[in-house]
Amino acid sequence: MSPQAFVYTEVQISVPFHQAPWREINDLLRTQPGLLNKTWLSGDHNQSLGGFYAFDSMENARHFAHVYFPEEARKLGAAFTTRVFDGGITETASRDLASPHYS
Length: 103
Description:
By secondary structure, the protein is an alpha+beta fold. The chain has one domain (5-94): Alpha-Beta Plaits. It is 32% helix and 28% strand. The protein is globular, with a radius of gyration of 14 Å.
């Protein structure tokens, strides 16, 4: 299935990635409706944590970005950035550059 939406997130905390509770977070993420996959991100020089997520629909991506993710960031007591992107309208351009999300 080709993703129909992508979400970018970043939590403004400074944690070396090896200390991040990524296993526990992954378990929670597996329960999110429509999540196809996540690529973890760790900020260069600032050690912020973030991710690039692929979703099966804009509806599920928006729910994640506007409901689930903000609540999880609040639990960490951290500011955050979240952006939702339409994966459907960019599919042809992404395939042209051999994006692994559109195999």
